[in-house]
Design goal:
The protein is of the alpha+beta class. The chain is about 45% helix and about 20% strand. It has twelve helices and eleven strands.
Length: about 300
């Protein structure tokens, strides 16, 4: 798997949850913080996103916003409308009013709440992809809009298709953001063929005892040049990132499988279960066995 796919697969838990919301002005809704990533897709009309830590953002039909590790925000017909509603399960889908209609698809992508990845840590509070700026996002939004419009007909496969389209939307939104920021950080790392080869090499074989020289050779550059460029784009030295990825891989295996600790240790490059347990506790703050039981 490539690095973005690997990262999403390792950190995602469960399927995306979503619901249709229709409001008529005036209206204002508060969204409390979530451990995953909140998202909104404007299906009809317009509204304003009101983040807690930045300026309001106007949203139009076809716009998508992603809020990774959201600290809470609001949506409203105007930026100064009070947030009198609190979004909660079981609330009415449609609330009538005298003003203009807005329809949104709102939901959450669940992510592991106790560990993360620097690729996602580099995201801003609000990732906004305006309508028409990315062809893949636009196409996926069109498919979602059509599927939701036909939901009353209950077409066969609807319960499988909508989550699949939402999963595709997440990848396309992240791709769009990384492409727009290809001049620094993880955008650089994933769009630089040399850095991408080194990252793919580590992800493909996390158990291998990689050296900086070997990884530099995979990237087609000297040890010193590779170490400098990798640290500048990824934000940490190559072997520090390798250890981080090994611990993420191990945490996923503890969460999703019944494999013995010794087997998990070997898959991430540790011949000693004791050495693995020590490294895991340093990374995650708890022993592997306790992490598995807690999960």
């Amino acid at each position: 798997m490539d690095v973005l796919s690997d990262t999403i697969a390792a950190l995602r838990t469960g399927r995306p949850g979503s619901g249709l919301t229709v409001r008529h002005a005036p209206w204002g809704r508060e969204y409390r913080s979530v451990s995953g990533a909140g998202f909104h897709l404007v299906l009809d009309g317009s509204c304003w996103l009101v983040p807690r830590r930045s300026e309001p953002v106007p949203l139009a039909v076809g716009d998508v916003v992603l809020l990774y590790r959201d600290v809470g925000h609001g949506l409203a017909d105007r930026p100064d409308t009070p947030l009198s509603e609190v979004a909660a399960p079981g609330e009415p889908t449609v609330v009538a009013g005298p003003g203009a209609r807005t329809a949104l698809l709102c939901g959450v992508y669940e992510f592991a709440h106790d560990w993360t990845h620097p690729l996602l840590d580099g995201l801003p509070d609000v990732v906004h992809v305006p309508a028409g700026t990315d062809p893949q996002v636009t196409a996926t939004v069109g498919l979602l809009t059509a599927e939701l419009a036909a939901d009353a007909d209950r077409r066969p496969g609807a319960d499988a298709l909508t989550p699949a389209l939402l999963d595709a939307l997440l990848v396309y939104v992240l791709r769009a953001w990384l492409a727009a920021h290809a001049d620094h950080g993880w955008g650089t790392a994933l769009h630089d063929p040399a850095m991408a080869r080194a990252l793919d090499t580590m992800h493909a074989e996390p158990a291998h005892p990689w050296t900086v020289g070997e990884l530099g050779a995979a990237a087609g550059m000297s040890r010193a040049t590779f170490a400098r460029r990798f640290t500048g784009s990824v934000g940490e030295p190559p072997l520090a990132y390798l250890t981080r990825w090994r611990m993420i891989t191990a945490a996923r295996a503890l969460r999703d499988t019944d494999a013995p600790l010794a087997a998990i240790a070997r898959t991430v490059g540790y011949s000693s279960e004791y050495a693995f347990a020590k490294a895991f506790k340093r990374a995650h703050g708890t022993a592997p066995g306790q992490y598995r039981r807690r999960g």
